[in-house]
Input
Amino acid sequence: MIAVKGYGTKHSFTGLKAYAFERKEAGAHEVEIAVLYCGVCHSDIHQAKNEWSNTVYPCVPGHEAVGRVTKVGAHVSKHAVGDIVGVGCLIDSCRQCEPCGHGEENYCEGPNGALATYNGPMVPSAAGTENTYGRTNTYGGYSDVLVVDEHYVLKIPASLAPEVAAPILCAGVTTYSPMKHWGVKAGDKVGILGFGGLGNMAAKIAKAMGAQVTVFTRTEEKLEQATRIGVQGVLETDKDALKALKGTFDFILSTVPEKHDVNPFVALLKRDKTLVVVGALELLEPVNNQEVAFHRKSVAGSLIGSIADTQEVLDFCAAHQIGPDIQIIPIQQINDAYKKVIDGDVRFRYVIDMATLKEDTAFSEF
Output
């Protein structure tokens, strides 16, 4: 077994703290990774606080991890010791169901679905049984070591700084995948609802695709941020501006991470076009079906992205020289960072420097 240090929590009502735990040694098809950086996703907060009512404790968050390969199994062929690699939202799937057969592991229909990088499987194993990772839970990238099957490990392009690449593993693919699926192309008019970590990445990707991008946000400050990256900004509360945009958009992506009303934005779609929600998993405000039916519009959802999509978006960002705006923090500031994410006081993505784990001298055990 490998002795691992990280940050996690045992309860929904406590903050994260330094913990020591173990991972199994890399198997024949697995790689061992020394984690260098890990992004802070709003999903980490939802899970740590059990806001989706499915958290398995102890919980060690983190699914935007970038590190260096330190060991490979005997049959590993995709990665070598010394490679800079990434681990995103999933680390395994059944590999036998129809979605897995089509390279869409994120929609795995196996007994437990896709195995999440942390808090997996989403449906805990029966009492007394373990999953292939040696326990009834998985621990994520807020740690100094990960061990993952080579198929679920991504190659980080040399032109992407590892700390910049980290949020692309979730924020990047979560926004890229639906734009790819719904065929966003050069010249399309694309709306991005919300301008936090996902919205910032979505706007940059859509712009790089050649789309005309409009960001809908609640604050004047973020309008200025939108202008800074070369896209249009509109206040969500500006009813006159929204009225002028009615029926003009080819695609709208909602990145808002909580329950919200999409109806004002459904009205902005052209006939036969789609608004996709990626930021919120809970129920939304009811959709006005008159607006949908009279113009054959769609409101849809999308869940992260496949392993292939994740590699594609990493390569896309490298090719177009784009990446998220990040703030690097020591892991000791993680609880304060969570508060700032909730308050919207981050521009735009926190990334943890995992080397700061060495500053902790006392680690509790799970």
About this structure: Residues 2-160+323-365 form a domain with the Quinone Oxidoreductase; Chain A, domain 1 fold (CATH 3.90.180.10). The radius of gyration is 20 Å. Residues 162-181 form the longest helix (20 residues). The chain has a mean pLDDT of 94.
